[in-house]
Amino acid sequence: MKLLAxxxxxLEAIAAAEVRDLVGCxxxxxxxxxxxxxxxxxxxxxxxxRSRTLHRLMAVVAEGTVTELxxxxxxTARSPIAERLPETDFGVVGTRHGSHDFTSVDVAExxxxxxxxxxxxxxxxxxxVDLDDPTVRLEAYLYDDRFTLAxxxxxxxxxxxxxxxxxxxxxxxxxxxxxxxxxxxWTPDDRLVDPMAGSATIPIExxxxxxxxxxxxxxxxxxxxxxxxxxxxxxxxxxxHTERSPTLDIEARExxxxxxxxxxVNRGAAGVENGFxxxxxxxxxxxxxxxxxxxxxxxxxxxxxxxxxxYGAFVDRLREGDVGRLVxxxxxxxxxxxxxxxxxxxxxxxxxxxxxVWKP
Length: 360
Ligand SMILES: C[S@@+](CC[C@H](N)C(=O)[O-])C[C@H]1O[C@@H](n2cnc3c(N)ncnc32)[C@H](O)[C@@H]1O
Prior knowledge:
Layout: E1 2-6, H1 12-23, E2 28-31, E3 34-38, H2 41-50, E4 56-65, H3 69-78, H4 81-84, E5 90-97, H5 104-123, E6 136-143, E7 146-152, H6 174-183, E8 191-194, H7 201-211, H8 231-240, E9 249-254, H9 257-269, E10 277-280, E11 289-296, H10 307-320, E12 322-330, E13 342-348, E14 351-358
Helix pairs in contact: 3-5, 6-7
S-adenosylmethionine binds at residues 168, 170-172, 196, 198-199, 201-202, 253-256, 259, 282-284, 296, 298, 310.
């Protein structure tokens, strides 16, 4: 079957590499923040307890070219949608990009009506609609003339890690942290330092990845209610998954005591107390030796920090030290006095951010 998987926009290639590593499927970009690939039900299970960069998986039900709104209805009505849904309430989320004389709400409405009609024709039952909290969620994408309809398999997004008890003011998403670690080509044998670690999202995700820990052990996936999926089998596979206990060399540095405390709380909740130290250090002054420096730098928006001075002194410490590679997330890449080896431009909430890669 064809799957779609969502991830952080601009990091589709990183997610595709993870999918290849975990289940051997070749993924390509469907549109920004979404990759597509062919996989089987066992792959769906594995990705739901092993993926660190994906947010949500969906099974494609219909695809085609659309010139007018009624094509959306026809493509949905002709699809095997009735076989893919259980007899329960559903909702449709429409996403539309490009120039059309109708809205994403119109797309969602046409898909909804076609689904009701197709299900009633096949079974005699009229499916109830719940737009607020549906048991089954359909995603309808219209990108220019390309229409794709998919059933959500995940439910609660995989990026919501349960160990994030203490929230930083400006936390990085766990899936973005994992993508940055992959960009850094970090392995558990490498020394990793996050010199401005805040609540230690990056060190925690590294320690969990090294252990092969399950990112969302608490997940009740949406696919459990769908025909063709076996929730017990999924839970059995998840329980049988084995972790490792490698010796790690990771350091979370942070200037502010408040965030060091927060980092320790989250580290404990993640069960990786022995995975790394949380230390007091000023990135403008502390010397640094590491295979990988991976950090979500302060953006200076709320703090009023002099970013030019901070970034300049930090890069001086990197140049003086013995550093293999830097992977840094910032909204002000121009303030880093270095020539990036690579960069990834990503949307970051309402801001534009960049992941800067630098190999000294
Ligand atoms: C964007 S936040 C990092 C958030 C973190 N990735 C998380 O998910 O919690 C940047 C952090 O850098 C810290 N910071 C700012 N200037 C610093 C300095 N000179 N040395 C060390 N840490 C600093 C801030 O206190 C803040 O916690």
